[in-house]
Amino acid sequence: MGTRLKVLGVFKSLHRTRMAVFKEDDKALTAARLKINEEFKKNKNETSEENIQKMIKMGTDVEIVLRETVLQMEHVGESRLLLRPRESHMLENVPYCDEPRKKS
What we know:
Interacts with UQCRFS1. 55% of the residues lie in helices and 8% in strands.
């Protein structure tokens, strides 16, 4: 895959992740969009293949961090927050058991 396509892929991936992570939060959506666009515009004239590969890696890492670690919360009172986990944060609730299951 060409470098231009990789860069475009990372750009699109960051924007898709932004839309999922900051869903229904217009302020955060706008701030993230502006920051992503700013970083890509700032480096659009980069010609060093090594630097471009480092920036692709950085963009991919940022996308992973956003997708896996950022949680949405909303103030619902003066001292209360409502947590809005995404489906990817939900784990199957399996009860803990000290004894291993016996094979049938």
